[in-house]
Records
---
Amino acid sequence: MQGQTSMSDIEYNNRRKKTRREVFLETMDAIIPWRRLIALIEPHYYHNKTGRPPLGIETMLRMYLLQIWFGLSDELTEDGIFDSRAMRDFMGINFLISQAPDSTTLMNFRHLLEKAGLQERIKDEILSLLEENGLVMHGGTIVDATIHQASGSTRNSTGERDPEMKSTKKGNNYYFGMKSHTGVDAGSGAVVNTAYTAANEHDITQASNCYREDDDVRYGDAAFIGVEKRPEMELSDLFSQSKRTNEEVEYRISKRPKSRTEKHDYPINWEKLIEAKKSAVRWMVEYPYYIVKRIFGCDRAIYRGIKKNACRMDMAFASANLYMFRHRLPQFST
């Protein structure tokens, strides 16, 4: 696929060190189960009997993942492949033989995945891979939500802001955009469930979509106080396969500081100690947000509408699961 080695290849391979981008791409390339993901996409992919044959699924999937990992637009992804040797090697492109797909082809591929809901299925397939390798535990889930800001500009064809995005206040600041609600495995930190809403939706409304049926313990911050009493939680537990009741599940929800009754630390402030123990577990829900927002750069809602942004975030969280366990997953051959 790479063709004959050129003088530029010899010069490039004689470098003193590899860049962090190159190491990252080589690691992700080795641990992604390409054949399993291609098999998910293949039934929905183009099967043209006439005209120009479509590009390979793996080539387009690699290009789409580059877009997710580096927070790029369609045009900048195309430019990045031409500009970066590490990206080009990840794509498996040799300009003596073939050219990189253009931005329009990438956009069409992204729309194909969105229409078939394949991003969520890819996320579930990655989670299954972690399960098969014993990297996901059961019995406890931590839930939380994070805000993705959207553009408030009205300089578009409609002259309006995105109607699906809403404003909310956090602390002393206002944000316009959407929320990612996640359920994280309390034992490993892997993202197991996701839900997406406008930013003004309260965190507690999506708890039933983020907790798991087989939970023995459920964690949450002060925004989830009273979650066990909500009707959708009772219904989800009632109709789940395990048919659990609220009495069989322990809810370890953090208290608000103002609601604590023990105000002194002598000899031991037991309430403060208990809250510290909850926080010692609950911090794990923040690590996937760090990967998605800071490492992958998916901190903003860049498309109009929640569905398109939700598909992008599902791919980002699936990639975050791989990134967290990159040193413990087996390596696959394409």
Note: The CA atoms of residues 59 and 91 lie 6 Å apart.
---
Amino acid sequence: MTSAFLAVPAASSCSRTAAGSSRHSPRNRYVAEVLQQARLATLLLDLLTPEEEARDEQTARLRFDIGLLAERLVIAADWLREREETGGLPIGCFGASTGAAAALIAGAARRDAVRAVVSRGGRPDLAGDALERVDAPTLLIVGGLDTTVVALNEQALRRLRIPVKKLEIVPQATHLFPEPGALEQVAQLACAWFVDYLARG
């Protein structure tokens, strides 16, 4: 499933992670745990319903419906803003694959709330013109051996008009970062980015 994170600075015992299919992915849960250890509350969600995911496995279309994915991430961000525990806190968006484009579009749509964006092995290029409206400091993380995605991230980085943006390439890592130590490096990079820019928010 296509999934994404929302992260906010934790207020006392507010650290939580939601649960589901891609939400159960060991990669995603590991990153969420690292964020939680840094006192960042996390909401880990799938952007497609189980029924949509079943259809998408046949057609591979919904995973590229970036507008739909972004709309659901915006709804989740608005839900966080309406809750008493998280309403006044800055939000960070973390997306992988096409979820990265959704995270960037959500950041552009909720510029007053989203204060940091991180993409892991993502397709930020699919955010299109929204790249030029993103205000939040943005970190793009790509495996060094994922050469096609590296090139797409370099193109997206050039389109971002924000002063704080960075492309981090994890050496000798492929698309899903299965190599020893690669995912740990991704998690630490994302965590440091969120801690820095959400704390400023």
Note: Residues 3-200 form a domain with the Rossmann fold fold (CATH 3.40.50.1820).
---
Amino acid sequence: MKIHFVAADAPDAQTALKVMRERHPDAGEKDCDVIVALGGDGFMLQALHRFLGRGKPIYGMNLGSVGFLMNEYREGDLEERLAQAESAQIHPLIMRAHSGEGTREARAFNEVSLLRQTRQAAKIRILVDGKPRIQELICDGIMVATPAGSTAYNLSAHGPILPIDADLLALTPISAFRPRRWHGALLSHKARVRFEILEAQKRPVSAVADDLEVRNVTSVDIAEDRSTSMTMLFDAGHSLDERILAEQFVD
């Protein structure tokens, strides 16, 4: 199996990169069969974006803090682990963020989130498949999360955990003030979500797709991009769907 190694800038990850390249030939980005990413969850997201469309599966080894999207870092038995690894195919969201400066397009494997920029709460109208569902949400923000991202920011905002193979998206408010009792919704993966910013100049809002931010948006359109996918590899018995299931039973 031909391997290409990439690593985060952190000292531990760079040290691991040197060790791994001493143990295994690096086939290079073009000729490899699999990419091994050394770092944390944030670096995995960077790797997913960097290698999008290359048709290369990515196997991550954790040298960060949480490592939910990563496997345990070990220096030995890498080829055996790769040969027995279980795969998970994930699809990104595509965000089109509109502002006075035009339209920015970006993809997100975890979530697209809208966040207030000032002390003023945001006011946002929510439309699903062209139909208004909430005329005015007063909040700190709101997000649309994928199953892969449902255990990240979405979970911190008390959103639902989604099985990795669920054809669902999580629509989750962030500190909603009104409607006070609204806690979000589960949407079909085919749903098209539109957020319209009310009083946009007085209550400015930014839109973030993974790590790309667009400020002062006036509206944002979000949908799943089924034409694009990435394959992630996980150690046997520790697949992504098993991790997501186990996360729902922790204290």
Note: The chain has a mean pLDDT of 94.
